[in-house]
Amino acid sequence: MSNKPWIVDDALWAVVEPLLPKWPPRSPGPRPVDDRRCLQGILFVLYTGITWQQLPLELGFGSGQTCWRRLGRRHEAGVFGKLHRILLAELNATDRIDWTRACVDASHVKAKKRGRSDRPIVRRPGQDRQQTPPDL
Hints:
Layout: H1 10-16, H2 35-48, H3 64-76, H4 79-93
Helix pairs in contact: 2-3
């Protein structure tokens, strides 16, 4: 593994590349930035915490705007969800995940029937007590 975590090695690229949507037929104009280099630019921004506008062009990853747009397109195409499932399955198959330390984030779980009906009504300080709460 590289000491630069944003570098996509050949083994990872072999998993990622088939998941990427195909480019439309080439039109006149500048050549698009190579997908692998652009992914490295995305990872560089996410790893270092810089803004997209601060991505140095001299690194060869393309502009921050290009990487940001490509990140959005890849997300909409479901690339990262698929990649996540593939890598989890691979790590699980080689017994490299400690499932005893798993955590579920409840902020992404919908409440059934809008929560419990027996919970107390909490009013904000100064809220008119005559005001009836909205129907739940």
